[in-house]
Amino acid sequence: MQTRGKVSIALSGTGKVTIDWGDESVKIYMLAEIETDLLTRKEFFIKHRYTKVQNRTITITGENIIGLRCNGLKITSLNVSNSVSLEYLYCSDNQLINLDVSRNVRLKNLECDRNQLTSLNFSNNTCLSRVCCSHNQLSYKALNDMYETLNDMSAPKSVLIADNPGALNSDLCIAWKKEWRVHIKYGVCPYPFPDKWEIRPLD
């Protein structure tokens, strides 16, 4: 990450969290009890100020972090492999080329739009029910491969793929067969029918 001035990271979970800000500043924070529902959960916003522009690595350590929001920080690499309790990950508007969530088996909600991702794999994410991966570099083949890895649990599930190179040419049937709603544009979600597609607005 390369930035100057104030940065803000939001965490949700419980217990002690240690953050090494990459500028010889290490601080300890306490996360309060939280609601785990996506709409009602509480987030603990943590702010830090840098005085110089340079590449830095921020290291966050905690035993029960279930939510991380790190949008718009010019992040080029994000390692969440040790965050096995993570359920919500918001890393939009960064500079990510790769994102590995294979060890985040509890992940429910992922927003990774507005990056430079060329592939996504959700083979191990059996709890996942919402994905926003719009405005990346996902080809139709990469999207088809991603659909193949989506879980087939019986629950409302949706994925937003708008403004990817392959968004209009990918095989939506792969996702439909697993009961995923695929939003190919903002406000447009095609549904499969025996003879035709029907275009419906988002709820």
Provide a descriptive summary of the structure in words.
The chain has helices at residues 140-149, 172-176; strands spanning 2-13, 15-20, 26-31, 44-55, 59-62, 65-69, 88-90, 109-111, 130-132, 158-160, 181-183, 189-192, 197-200. The strands form 3 sheets. Strands 4-1-6-7-8-9-10-11 form an 8-stranded mixed sheet. It has a 3-stranded antiparallel sheet with strand order 3-2-5, with no helix packed on it. A two-stranded antiparallel sheet has the order 12-13. Helices cover 7% and strands 33% of the residues. It has 2 helices and 13 strands; from the N terminus they run βββββββββαβαβββ. With 203 residues, it is mainly β. β2 and β3 form a beta hairpin. It folds into 2 domains: 1-64; 70-203, Alpha-Beta Horseshoe (Leucine-rich repeat, LRR (right-handed beta-alpha superhelix)), CATH 3.80.10. The N and C termini lie far apart (36 Å).
Brief sketch in words of this structure:
Helices cover 7% and strands 33% of the residues. The chain is mainly beta. Strand 2 (15-20) and strand 3 form a beta hairpin.
Walk me through the topology.
Blueprint: E1 2-13, E2 15-20, E3 26-31, E4 44-55, E5 59-62, E6 65-69, E7 88-90, E8 109-111, E9 130-132, H1 140-149, E10 158-160, H2 172-176, E11 181-183, E12 189-192, E13 197-200
Parallel strand pairs: 6-7, 7-8, 8-9, 9-10, 10-11
Antiparallel strand pairs: 1-4, 1-6, 2-3, 2-5, 12-13
